[in-house]
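User: Design a sequence. Structure:
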């Protein structure tokens, strides 16, 4: 599926991990779909094109404006909410998707610039600026904790997973079953509510 997506500096453009997340999460059973940290809107737009009822959130107002513009360009209806993860959301959902930012502590401008310039990714990654691993893991832990309270019975959570061991540790006592799927060399974690 071809989507029309534009991103200004300050909003990360969709890459392979975003495309993988969109394809896997949109194929899950269920109608209600939440795209957490929507960025450009790619995941939510893809899901809406597949017939899902989508709510897309981001803490970055520029990302919300960009995603709205992209949803109009792709002729889909999406509800947009400015929110830090689930802070402004209520209720339960069939599908929850999240591609954590490269480094939550890095400004959106620099994150966007880094994703657009391959050499900068290598250089900044080498000096430790790019990875933001500790911040990213803390955000993933917070996401898992909040998302399980918003997951409908028989629902699924999809998360781009760079550190599988850490995610396994987070989920051990969370009442979530999980598995990892590789899609074009991208690891996606899929969580479902544990049967009790």
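Assistant: Done.
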């Amino acid at each position: 599926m071809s989507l029309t997506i534009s991103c200004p500096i300050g909003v990360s453009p969709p890459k392979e991990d975003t495309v993988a997340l969109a394809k896997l999460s949109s194929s899950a059973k269920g109608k209600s779909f939440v795209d957490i940290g929507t960025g450009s809107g790619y995941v939510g737009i893809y899901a809406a094109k597949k017939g899902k009822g989508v709510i897309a959130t981001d803490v970055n107002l520029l990302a919300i404006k960009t995603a709205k513009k992209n949803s109009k360009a792709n002729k889909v209806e999406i509800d947009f909410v400015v929110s830090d993860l689930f802070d402004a959301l209520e209720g339960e959902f069939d599908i929850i998707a999240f591609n954590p930012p490269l480094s939550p502590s890095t400004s959106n401008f620099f994150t966007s610039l880094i994703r657009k310039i391959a050499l900068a990714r290598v250089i900044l990654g080498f000096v430790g600026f790019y990875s933001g691993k500790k911040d990213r893991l803390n955000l993933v832990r917070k996401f898992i904790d909040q998302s399980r309270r918003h997951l409908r019975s028989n629902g699924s959570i999809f998360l781009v997973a760079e550190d599988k061991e850490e995610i396994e540790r987070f989920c051990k006592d969370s009442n979530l079953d999980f598995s990892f799927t590789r899609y074009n060399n991208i690891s996606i974690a899929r969580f479902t509510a544990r049967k009790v």
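The longest strand covers residues 151-160. Residues 126-131 have pLDDT under 50 and may be disordered.
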